[in-house]
Amino acid sequence: MNAPLDVGRFGSGKTVRRIEDPTLVAGKGQFTDDLNRPGQAHLIFVRSPHAHARIVSAEVRGAAALPGVLAAYSGADLLAAGVKPVAAAIPFPRPDGTPAASAKRYALAVDRVRYVGEAVAAVVAQSREAALAGVDAVRIAYEELPAVVDAASAVAPGAPALCNAAPDNIASEMRHGDAAATAAAFARAAHTVRLDIVNQRIAPSPIEPRVVLAEIDAGGKLVVTLSSQMPTAVRDGVAACLPNLTAAQVRVRVGDVGGGFGMKTGIYPEDIVVAHAARSLRRPVKWCGQRYEEFCASVHGRDVVSHAELALDAQGKVLALRVRSLASVGGYATATGVLIPLLVGPWVSTSIYHIPTIFLHLTAVMSNTTPIGAYRGAGRPEAIYLIERLLDAAAREMRLDPAEIRRRNMIQPAQMPYTNPMAQVYDCGEFEKILDQGLALADWNGFAARRARSEQRGKLRGRGIATFLEWTGGNVLAENVTVNVLADGFIELTSATQAMGQGIATSYAQLAVDVFQVPIERIRVLQGDTDRATGFGSAGSRSLFTGGGAVHVASKRTVEHAKQLAGDALEASASDIEYRAGRFNVIGTDLGIGLFDLAATQETARITMDGTATAGAPSWPNACHICEVEVDPDTGDVEVVAYASVNDIGRVISPQIVRGQVEGGAVQGIGQALCEQVVYDKDSGQLLSASFMDYALPRADVFRGFKTQFDTSVPCRTNVLGAKGVG
C-alpha cells in the first residue's frame, strides 16, 4: 500500500465491475427471507375478498386455539392494544377548502374494507403450515357494499362514498397557473389541439416481494429487518404507530433488496402488524409476501386520466397548456399518492419547452382499489406523456416534422437559469444540442427507407420521439455519510441511502477512490441500518447527487483531518504534509506514514469523519429518446426494432451503471406502453390481473438492443459533483 498506485481505472467516470455483484452472482446475497432466527414464528394475513364492505364481525378465537398458533389478531384487537392508524399528512385541501380527506388506514381493517386484498386479520404460528391452518379458521362476516374502481365513476353523482369526510370521493385538489391568462391565450391561438389521455394503473413488480422480520434484541430494542428503500421512514413509522415506543427504541435493518422502483418507500400496514406481533410475543416473527399479495396490497403506480389542451401560434410556438386530470389514489389517500399527481408531476408539465402560460386543474380521487404510491419516475412520466402527445398532435395538425415542432419550442441556453410556470428553476440545459445528437444517432432522416423495407416484408413501421427532462429530489433533505478509515486496511462509508439493485455502492466507492486513491477493493459501503445512519433514503433519483455528494465531502474532510494526525505523528506541520495513494509524506523528504498505519495509531484504531451534502436545488437530467416499432398487420404483434437515446445526466460516475439505469427505465416505459395494466372488474371491484399469468411484463425478446449515449458537457450547477439524477 505504500508504493504509488495507479487507481485511475477505479475512479469516477470509469467502467468497473460492480462491487455488489460477486456475492449476488454466487448466490450469497442476504435478502430478508434468507434470514431465519431461532424460535422464529410465521405470520400470514387474512385479506378482504371484497372491494368494499362493512366488517360485521371478525372472529379470530378459533384460529388462536389451534395447535401451533401463537396469536391471532383482528383490527379491533390491535386498536384495543393501542396500535394507531398510519398517519397521512396530506397538505392539499379539498375543493371547498377543507382539509384533505381520507378514511383512517389501520394496520388491520376496522369497520370497513376499501379494496380487495386489504388485510383484516393476521395469524402467527410456530410454522407456516400452522399459520395457514389458522387463517382457514378465521371467520370474517362482511356486508358487501357497492364499489367504484375508476376516478371518473368515483366522482359521478351517486357514486358510493369511501369516507364520510368526502361524499364526492375527492381527497384533495390543486390548481396551478393562471386560468384567465390561459383562456386568453387559447382565444388568440392560430392552432389548438386537444387529447383525452390515459396513464393506466400499473404494478411495480420488483423481483423480490416485500418481506418483514421483527424481533427484540438482547438490549430490548425492537429490530425490524425488511426490504425497503427508506429505513429511517420505516423506523419512524413503526415508532409512531406502536404504543409506548420511541424511534430510539427501534432499529431498522435492510440487507439486499431485489428491486424497489419506488414501491418500497415508507411504512406499510404489514410492517406494523409484524412489529406488534414480535413485541407482544417476545419472539422473532416473519412475514413473506406472496406474489398475489404484491399485486393486491403493495402500492400501484400512475392511474391518471387527463383532458389536455395546447394552444399554438401560426409558427408552431406554444402559447399555453391546459390540463384537467383525475388521479385515482385508491382506497386510502396517502401523502405520497396525492403529492405525486398534484405537485411533483406538475413541476415538469412544461418539460424543456418555453410555455409562458399554464392552467392545471388536478384532483385526487379515492376509489375501491389498492392505494397509489411512488413508481419509477413518480408523476414525471405522466406529465411528460401529456406534453409529448400534445406536441405530436400539433405537428400533425400543422404538418410539421415532430422533431421540428419540438425544436421551435425548446428553452435556449441563453435563457438559463430558467424559471418554468411552476416556479421550478432549471440551472442548466442545452436541449437542442441533445436533440441534434439524438436525431443523428437514430438516423432520423433515414426512416422512410427503413419503413419501405419493412413494408416489403409485410410489416408496418412507426416511430416516436420524446425530448424531455426530469425533476430529481435533491433538495428534499440533506444526506450524511460517515467515513471510517480502519487499521485493517479498509475504508468504510456509511450512508442512509439504500441500495436496491441500482449499483449505488459501486458509484460511492468510485467517488471515494477519487479522493483516497486506493484500490476499490479497499472501500466498503454500509447501508440499511438506522443505528448507524439515518436520512431520507433513496427515492426521486437522488442517491448519487446527494448521497454521493456527501461521500465526496466526507472523504475530503477525512483526508484533511488525517493530515493533521499525520503531522502530529511525523512531528511536522500539517501544511507540510502531502497525501497520495494511501500515504502521507513530509514534502521533500522520504518521511511518511500510510493511511491505515496512521489509523492504527489512534486510540480507537480508526479515523472517523462525517460529511453532509445538500443539493442547492433539484437537478434536471434531460434526453432525446427515439423509438421505432414494427407491427404485424395480421396479428397486431408489436416489436421494438430500434431504440436510440442521447442523455444529459451531467457528470457520469459509473458509465455501466447509468447505462443500465437508462435502458432499464426505457424497458419499464415500453412495458407500460405495450403490455402492462392493472385491471379491476368494474362491477365487483375484483382484481383481474393478480398474477403474471394476467399481468404482462415486457420480455427480453421484445427488444433488439439499444443505442445509448451520454453527453457530459453540461454539468449540474447545484451540487458538488456536477451530477444529475438518473434513477
Task: Describe the overall structure.
The protein is of the alpha+beta class. 27% of the residues lie in helices and 25% in strands. The longest helix has 28 residues, at 543-570. It contains 18 helices and 28 strands. Strands 3-5-1-12-9-10-11 form a seven-stranded mixed beta sheet, sandwiched between helices. It has a five-stranded mixed beta sheet with strand order 7-15-14-13-8.
The rounded distance between the terminal residues' Cα atoms is 35 Å
Radius of gyration: 27 Å
State mean pLDDT (0 to 100 scale).
Answer: 94
**What is the global morphology?**
globular
Describe the largest sheet: 7 strands, mixed
Summarize the amount of helix as a percent range.
25-40%
Across the major sheet, the strand order is: 3-5-1-12-9-10-11
Strand content: 25-35%
Which stretches are low in confidence, meaning pLDDT under 50 for 5 or more residues running?
1-5
The count of DSSP E runs of length 2 or more, i.e. the number of strands, is: 28
Question: What's this model, at a glance?
Answer:
The chain is an alpha+beta fold.
Topology (elements, then pairings):
Elements: H1 21-25, E1 41-47, E2 53-59, H2 61-64, E3 69-74, H3 75-80, E4 112-113, E5 119-125, H4 128-137, E6 139-144, H5 151-154, E7 170-177, H6 179-188, E8 191-202, E9 211-216, E10 222-226, H7 231-241, E11 250-253, H8 269-281, E12 285-288, H9 291-297, E13 301-312, E14 318-330, H10 335-344, E15 357-366, H11 380-398, H12 402-409, E16 418-419, E17 425-426, H13 431-442, H14 447-456, E18 460-469, E19 479-486, E20 491-495, H15 504-516, E21 523-527, H16 543-570, E22 577-580, E23 583-586, E24 592-594, H17 595-600, E25 606-613, E26 622-631, E27 638-648, H18 655-674, E28 707-710
Parallel strand pairs: 1-12, 10-11, 14-15, 20-21, 27-28
Antiparallel strand pairs: 1-5, 2-4, 2-6, 3-5, 7-15, 8-13, 9-10, 9-12, 13-14, 16-17, 18-26, 19-20, 19-25, 22-23, 23-24, 26-27
Helix pairs in contact: 11-12, 15-16
